[in-house]
Amino acid sequence: xxxxxxxxxxxxxxxxxxxxxxxxxxxxxxxxxxxxxxxxxxxxxxxxxxxxxxxxxxxxxxxxxxxxxxxxxxxxxxxxxxxxxxxxxxxxxxxxxxxxxxxxxxxxxxxxxxxxxxxxxxxxxxxxxxxxxxxxxxxxxxxxxxxxxxxxxxxxxxxxxxxxxxxxxxxxxxxxxxxxxxxxxxxxxxxxxxxxxxxxxxxxxxxxxxxxxxxxxxxxxxxxxxxxxxxxxxxxxxxxxxxxxxxxxxxxxxxxxxxxxxxxxxxxxxxxxxxxxxxxxxxxxxxxxxxxxxxxxxxxxxxxxxxxxxxxxxxxxxxxxxxxxxxxxxxxxxxxxxxxxxxxxxxxxxxxxxxxxxxxxxxxxxxxxxxx
Length: 372
Prior knowledge:
By secondary structure, the protein is of the alpha/beta class. The chain has 15 helices and 9 strands. The protein has helices at 6-31, 34-51, 58-65, 86-94, 135-139, 158-168, 181-193, 208-217, 246-263, 267-271, 285-292, 306-316, 328-333, 343-353, 355-371; strands at residues 71-74, 99-106, 112-114, 171-176, 201-205, 223-227, 275-279, 297-301, 319-322.
């Protein structure tokens, strides 16, 4: 399906206009020119209304996420089985998962596949960038190198993964980082071929231009915006990105400030997203209420500690993304937030019963700290 680039151009243009207006408003406000500020604000609001996309219906969102909190398997619970594989999906389903998060990428020959990294080095026995390898080359790789002793798994096509999800009645959260024209076209084509996805999936991304362009092409697709503070200039642990010069770091920090304001004001509204994927360190009952008052649901990433899971389930009442279901029985049977065991005792019991899986879980979670 041929999707024109005009949607991305339109969004980028409107984004640049809004950011420019925001900067001008801030500067002029300091200079105390209220009339000019008012005019710029009015122009900005007009631009927002002109380019805005309404979200899918609340009924569709209720069908996808339901009304009660439940876990979503991160990379199909990649700490319990080889991440982003059919085997991981089947194991997660057997452990009670009814919603999985997976990562989508395109091969050199344009086939949508399920893999997280830009390269195949970490999760397979191969090497090279995903976008430079064709599907047949990727298909021959073993995706279980982090799980020695398990049955060999290959990198699945997205369509294969969706088919298994349909058969198991497991919904899907598609994390997409490639906002190129061909990526958007491929996703829209898959949705047209698989109408089941409309009520059983969400497309999520850090990049609102992707979500905007996707819904311009097909406004029935439910989308969610992923966010963490200081995304432009800093790593997840708060340290400055090493590849930026001091000048670029300063510019990046400024853009992050403007972007942070934009995230909480106009971006969700103009893109028509229906959910907000928030980093776990941001979340509280008032934070969730902030988004609920604006018609958005909150999904929290990534949560592995039993106490945090129980807090999100019982106190905050939100869905949470997790790497493992191996401690979920503690969350469900704890008898309340005051009775949940410590993370150390939970993982000790798991290690006693499943030594191989626990070793893989530990290595996965260590790797997670460095790549997520």
